[in-house]
Amino acid sequence: MTPVSGIAGAPLAPTTERPAIQAGLIVLTILLLVVLLLLPLVVVFVEAFAHGLGAVVGALVEPEAIAAIELTLVVAAVSVPLNTVCGLAAAWCIGRFRFPGRRLLITLIELPFSVSPVISGLVWVLLFGANGWLGPMLDRAGVRIIFALPGLILATVFVTFPFVARTLIPLMQEQGAAEEEAAITLGATGWQIFRRVTLPNIRWGLLYGVLLCNARAMGEFGAVAVVSGHVRGQTMTMPLQIEALFNDYDWVGAFTIAGLLSLLALVTLAVKATLEWRIGRRGGALL
Amino acid sequence: MANRTAGRGIAVKVEAFELRKAFGRTVALDGVSLSVASGEFVALLGPSGSGKTSLLRVLAGLEFVDSGRIEIGGRSMDGVPARERSLGFVFQNYALFRHMTVARNVAFGLEVQPRRRRPPPRDIRARVRSLLDLMGIGDLAGRYPEQISGGQRQRVALARALAIQPGLLLLDEPFGALDAKVRKNLRIWLRDLHDRMGLTTIFVTHDQAEAMEMADRVAVLRAGRIEQVDSPDRLYASPANAFVHEFLGEAIRLECSVTQGRAHFDALSLTDIKTTCPAGPAIALIRPYEIGLLPGPGPVQVLSVHANGPLRRVRLALAGQALEVLLPEDSWSPTVGQSCALDLSRASIYSLASADTPRSPQALSKTATR
Q1: CATH number, span B242-355
Q2: Domain B14-237 maps to which CATH number in 3.20.20.70, 3.40.50.300, 3.30.365.10, 3.30.565.10?
Q3: CB B367 within 8 Å of CB B251
Q4: Does ipTM top 0.90?
Q5: What is the pTM for the complete model shown?
Q6: Chain B positions in Cβ-Cβ contact with residue A192 (cut-off 8 Å)
Q7: Is B95 in the A-facing interface, judged by CB distances under 8 Å?
């Protein structure tokens, strides 16, 4: 390929491909985006509305659907705050202090990312299931974890643990402890430092991590499927309900709930993009 | 003056006794004792890793000593957390709260006070305004730290530290991040501020010119120990040991040995000097302007002569090494290529046993010109 000459005064193009190739690549990219991302999303909504708005509303007020939506919200409402607090604490420890085992702790925090979600669910079955290590003991105490809400929450917490911590660790490391030390010398208490100095400095990063954590908590399938037991109307979260309805050939039902989940994802993405824009404008590093 | 009360505290006395502090196997403070009178301006001077910043942080309560005792204003600081020591601390990189405006930064120390001690919001605003005016940055109140220059940040950091009316101000390399010209102006300004506010100030620096220019007394630190605490004049005129001598300005270093009260420069064929140093290997340290040049055959060769204001800068070769001396205008002037003798009678002789860590084999190196 001959390089474009800059002598004639024409601005030197950053790429040297011929216009036909450039156009071809752009079209190919758009085509891939449409086929792989946009089309599936459209299909979800088209299929949901295939039999009109009435059918969608009908599918949404179905008791099983309501139970699934409720369960999903409950699981997210417990696991997201839990992971926010734990993630914040972990990021603070790792970002602010040097201690033996620090690298190991970082690796452990990232473990759920590298482990298959199915295994993340299975460990709880092996621990708390009827034939698990602690199963018989729990059984005698009348505590039910697997095939019940606690199991669903445990699996979700495990899978979504890294999001908040992973977002905050680099941010807090970069910011250092100097501002907090300054606040101490000015007479601030621990809580005042957290609320007035630490939290405002990490708020965008924290919100970003919480959003990602929430999206995953509501959308998690693999780990939850293992511990759920698929009791309809009782232990079915939205992703599980979608699969069950789909297997029943209830297309409208499946795609209605799928559409609801997709909407959630879209809102999350929109908020995330806004956050990124804001953070970028303020010159703060995000990840 | 309208700003007389803006952040004025009552100067306190600071005493440290035998402070020891180690980070793992690194000893940061190795038995440091220091007494700072109220209203005094003391510089902690030393190379990096000498423990000066550790000493400052220990005084502030940001680190805790392994042993030793600190008293501020006559009160023991045992078990007193940093936030109750009510002292002003200016951090090396200022550590301004990046999400707060300049005014909010300065108000912080007042706003976090317990309700019963906290001034009403109107008073806080007034105090912030008068402090910012005092610092000459009244027009920056609404800006964020990232929107102002380094010198301005430094002033904001000072205003913030002074807002709680501390009796003691601690500054960690306050001019480290500024360019040379801003530095020079701020030095004079800061010293003036100290005098006007009636504070006790302790500041850390590695710049000996800065320490000598600003401080009432300078504590020279090395490897976690204070080598000497004295007024700048006395430090310069009678350094306690070779380290202090070399750290405070240019010095020429010549190896020698002492026997029967005389220092011999065997290899260099220079005249002996009288000394009270104990017998054994030693070094002679002499500032470039303390060396005299005597006409007529001798061990040194004149390499070049430059007029340099009231002094003449003469480069000499001695035993294959180059050294530079400064001669007053009215003294005898050598010519290039001439051989002459050295007058080292003003040299200080330090026994190597007490001196310091071994230096590079280059005995004639110029040192301590940071």
Answers
A1: 2.40.50.140
A2: 3.40.50.300
A3: yes
A4: no
A5: 0.78
A6: 112
A7: yes
